[in-house]
Amino acid sequence: MQFAYNDEQQMLRDSVERFGEEEWNAADRLKRLAEGPAGGRRRWAKMAELGWLALPISESEGGLGGGPVEVMAIMEGIGRHLMTDAYASHCVLAPALMRGGGEHCAVLLEQLGAGAIRIAAALIEDSGFDPASIRTEALANGGGVRLSGTKIHVEDGADADWFLVSARTSGSAGSRDGIGLFLVPCDADGLDVRRFRSVDGHRHASLVLREVSATPVGKMGEAADRIDLAMDRAILAVLAESVGSMEASLAATLDYVRTRQQFGAPIGTFQAVQHKLVDMSLACEEARALTMVATAQYTQTASDAALVAAAKVRVAQCGIAVTQQAVQLHGGVGTSEELVVSHHLRRQMMLELAFGDASFHKARFADASFR
Amino acid sequence: MNLALTPEDREFQREVRAFFANTIPDAWKTTVRAGLRLPPETLTAYQRCLADRGWGAPTWPTEYGGTGWTPQQLHIFWSEASAADAPSQYHQGLELIGPIIFTYGSQAQKDFYLPRIISGEDWWCQGYSEPGAGSDLAALRTRAVRDGDTYILNGHKMWTSYAHVSTRMFVLARTSSETRRQQGISLLLVDMDTPGIRVSPIRTLDEKHHTNEVFLDDVRIPAANLVGEEGMGWNYGKVLLDRERMVAAATAMFLPQTLRAVRAAAARRRTSTGPLIEQPGFRAKLAQVEIEALGVQSMVLRLMADAAAGADSGPRGSMVKLRWSELLQQAMTLWIEALGPQAQHFEPLDGGGLSDDMPLALQGALFSRVTTIYGGSSEIQRNIIARRALGL
């Protein structure tokens, strides 16, 4: 078991660190957020130049073939600097869903790696986080397929050029058989895209599809395993982001308690404050160890579902606990928009929901381990 | 959950697995899963059995009769022990005084004491705590006065676990009064048969006899039983700081034993809507503890990787101790919940039997309360982490 990055991974991590300091300096955060999509496009082009966008795409599809550990090196930096750039959604989840999905996918992946387009996954419906509990219908129509249904949440979908939509070719909600995955352009006829900003600065969407013409990805009706494996990979990416973010919150809080004076002493000299910080550091330690172990076991063909689900539950709990305490120990100023700790808390709350919340993954863990 | 295994590791794993399959009787299972000690004579026989196999001292270097195993091999050994419901080895000799003797002891002390620890011939107890010196150990008042070739010990030790079955005790005693309280403390090895020692049991909430008070009245021991230099005893504990991470790791690796007991009990327990283990509320609670246990196992893997790389783990030993002790308590609480009303039947009053797991599960649940107190309470562990890791 390797708990340290190799030289290449370390260089990648350093490069993200430099990028974060330049583009997402905490002092300029509010300005960055105010820039909106224009700033996002500028950064996305830079990230393409650095080769990050193509990194998780397999070599046979024109990418750099980076694995989950390389993605971890990037994502923890994204978490540390609270970058709102949707790397996990567009560059990790989408390529994993499209891997080996045919000619059309290969063409789009090349454009994705170059930063020319963005692809978001529309998987979740109003019946919960389980990717199998979907009702959107895929009906054969002439030579093609048409999709009808509603996707209530598309992670980072507001600025996507294409959507990867899951839909049923057969079976009823809950069945793993009969699920297909389809590509739909954002301007397709019959597609209604509603866009939302979330409290952490990410930009999401919901979709209503009415007989939208779509292109299948991989074999129709057999996408359940593909979706699970891709979701696990995306989950590992957000775990690393969460770890980076909670560690940054801890570091900011440690700095603060050393300098903030009350009752004539730095508040970090008070035992009640120290013990809270210890619990925060313990949570960071546990979250990092779990993330590393879960990341190391993942391969492109298999994932330990119980372990990934466990890590998703626990890392989210740790992240929320750490950032809540970071706000608490900063006192009143911790709740201000100006300080970065409140932004970390908001991101952690949203990360808990991304790709399945704690209740969903706890049940998934129980199902996998009670079997 | 495991480290990446080489073919040699796998061969070793098979060997260890086979050993435990032939060594651990079913009768031990509930006691072990409850985190309770087997009867001393059973534990001594188990130690002898390990020693005969050459595995009596897993964490010691070969020159002192240990296995010289790498962290990787230790992880395999403990994983297999945990999976086989093997008990933890009694640690006061193996992990506390043994390493101090082989690091600071005289040649004569090494030659005499170390083999007797490995063979199980000696059972050691730790004479550290006193009525006024618990977490603040440096407040200890037991005195050792030099008189020719002997020391004369006088004092009162508390919480001396297993003193009632021990053959020997290592004692911290004041040999001089200095301004810095940690100075002037010496470490002495005492034969429990020496006149002047009186062991008195302390009755505890679990109604199992683990621990004692030890009264020392003019106990005369050979001066040769001083470890290292007079007045330097406090410092010798430092060697244990490096080693404690391994002890914490080993203990944390035994958590799944208790979780298996919870599952088994919840599978047996009937409710109006089927077995308890299938009830969503209980499942969610059990999943939460199991998930956190995976978190601790991941921390253990990281700590082992540190050890394998020869890297300092900082306070990771303290962190693992804090987490496993809290989780053990949570797991024991769930075990009691799974047993339900029958957990109220602690002792039969008219000669009948008890239900499965009783009274051991309840004793274990009660005994687990001490795990966040002994070996440095959770509050002290947090002080250590605040100082060593966070620099506060």
Helix/strand layout:
The complex is a heterodimer of chains A (371) and B (392).
Chain A: H1 7-23, H2 29-35, H3 37-49, H4 68-80, H5 87-98, H6 103-114, E1 119-122, E2 137-141, E3 144-154, E4 162-168, E5 179-185, E6 191-197, E7 203-216, H7 224-259, E8 261-262, E9 265-266, H8 271-297, H9 305-330, H10 340-353, H11 358-370
Parallel strand pairs in A: 1-4
Antiparallel strand pairs in A: 2-3, 3-7, 4-5, 5-7, 6-7, 8-9
Helix pairs in contact in A: 1-4, 4-7, 5-6, 5-7, 7-8, 7-9, 7-10, 8-9, 9-10, 9-11
Chain B: H1 7-23, H2 29-33, H3 40-52, H4 71-83, H5 91-104, H6 107-119, E1 124-127, E2 143-147, E3 150-157, E4 168-174, E5 185-191, E6 197-202, E7 211-222, H7 233-236, H8 238-252, H9 255-268, E8 270-271, E9 274-275, H10 280-308, H11 316-339, H12 360-367, H13 378-388
Parallel strand pairs in B: 1-4
Antiparallel strand pairs in B: 2-3, 3-7, 4-5, 6-7, 8-9
Helix pairs in contact in B: 1-4, 5-6, 5-8, 8-10, 8-11, 9-10, 9-11, 10-11, 11-12, 11-13
Summarize the structure.
The complex is a heterodimer of chains A (371) and B (392). Chain A has 371 residues and is of the alpha+beta class.
Describe the structure.
The complex is a heterodimer of chains A (371) and B (392). Chain A has 371 residues and is of the alpha+beta class. Chain A folds into three domains: 7-114, Butyryl-Coa Dehydrogenase, subunit A, domain 1 (Orthogonal Bundle), CATH 1.10.540; 119-221, Butyryl-CoA Dehydrogenase, subunit A, domain 2, CATH 2.40.110; 225-370, Butyryl-CoA Dehydrogenase, subunit A, domain 3. Chain A contains eleven helices and nine strands. In chain A, strands 1, 2, 3, 4, 5, 6 and 7 form a seven-stranded mixed beta sheet that branches. In chain A, strands 8-9 form a two-stranded antiparallel sheet. In chain A, helix 4 packs parallel to helix 7 (224-259), helix 5 (87-98) runs antiparallel to helix 7 and helix 7 packs parallel to helix 9. The longest helix of chain A is centred in the middle third of the chain and has 36 residues, at 224-259. The radius of gyration of chain A is 21 Å and the shape is globular. The two termini of chain A are 27 Å apart. The model of chain A has no long low-confidence stretch (mean pLDDT 96). Chain B is of the alpha+beta class. Chain B is 46% helix and 14% strand. Chain B has 13 helices and nine strands. The longest helix of chain B is centred in the C-terminal third of the chain and has 29 residues, at 280-308. The radius of gyration of chain B is 22 Å and the shape is globular. The model of chain B has no long low-confidence stretch (mean pLDDT 95). The chains are: A alpha+beta (371), B alpha+beta (392). The A-B interface holds A 1-4, 254, 257-258, 268-269, 271, 274-275, 277-279, 281-282, 285-290, 292-293, 307, 310-311, 313-314, 359, 362-363, 365-366, 369-370 and B 1-4, 277, 280, 283-284, 286-288, 290-292, 294-299, 301-302, 304-306, 309, 316, 319, 322-323, 379, 382-383, 385-386, 389-390, 392.
